[in-house]
């Protein structure tokens, strides 16, 4: 069981908080100051992993013995030149791929087991409201399809610059907005087929390096799982997942199956548990969370319990238990609860409380299906 952490001074959650959540063993981390395409330095990797896995003298003095591992990195982001198959933002794809390989080798040397990434054009996950009020006084990430459909990429950026809706996109800090016009132009005419060809080119170099380094790659599905702004998304449907896996068959090339993202298409939500069963052997890491569809393509994120929304989180955990799943799991986004918004405002979706509740729910379901009673001898 893992818990995502954005690093010291970059997250309202601390490693102590994480150690207080029963059942969490793995910190899911990244070097968040690194831009896509940049090499990660070995010393920075080692220092961050030491911080996560070590115990401070102060914690030791308090008698803390429980340690966390740093087995999973989310994410090492893929530079746009790789997705586009051409030089963009001043970097060639071959240089970006070479840097990716160097980073993977260094992570492997440091003991990292799984690297999560995504292959979405330009943006990572997309929501139209990051602090949507729910009737109980909590807030949650929210998606209104019509807002996205009528919004142009340029309009979106203008809104962000103006600070409208408090809308910020993950991975789109103000300094990166400058490159947006170039990217938007570069995607004109790029087809899904082009993206698959570029994806294969990337995997053909990176997967053999992962095999050597002992690192498993897990692609995170598109969130939401359909094209936005006319840019081609290629990791959306079950058939897409199959096609992506078939681009370069290897046990080191698999999925970070995010069932919340996958289920953001209402037609796919009922397929979640079946999709776990179908791809179980190639799932190295999974995000399990719930969303509720509101009609017209709108959805809100909700608590992790199955009956709160449209994602069968129980069926999903049962499918993992029955498949003998040995990969990593984490709750994904959570709502913002118990005055988090006003006291210690977290990163959107990454507060402490609802994710900690999610951990307990997922482990509860897992234990119910996976538990083997002590054998009796009479
Ligand atoms: C959404 C999140 C994503 C994920 C990245 C992985 O469901 O889990 O932001 O971290 O797409 O690269
Ligand atoms: Mn996810």
UniProtKB/TrEMBL annotation:
<keyword id="KW-0456">Lyase</keyword>
<comment type="function">
    <text>Catalyzes the dehydration of D-mannonate.</text>
</comment>
<dbReference type="InterPro" id="IPR036237">
    <property type="entry name" value="Xyl_isomerase-like_sf"/>
</dbReference>
<dbReference type="GO" id="GO:0008927">
    <property type="term" value="F:mannonate dehydratase activity"/>
</dbReference>
<protein>
    <recommendedName>
        <fullName>Mannonate dehydratase</fullName>
        <ecNumber>4.2.1.8</ecNumber>
    </recommendedName>
</protein>
<comment type="similarity">
    <text>Belongs to the mannonate dehydratase family.</text>
</comment>
<keyword id="KW-0408">Iron</keyword>
<dbReference type="InterPro" id="IPR004628">
    <property type="entry name" value="Man_deHydtase"/>
</dbReference>
<keyword id="KW-0464">Manganese</keyword>
<comment type="pathway">
    <text>Carbohydrate metabolism; pentose and glucuronate interconversion.</text>
</comment>
<dbReference type="Pfam" id="PF03786">
    <property type="entry name" value="UxuA"/>
</dbReference>
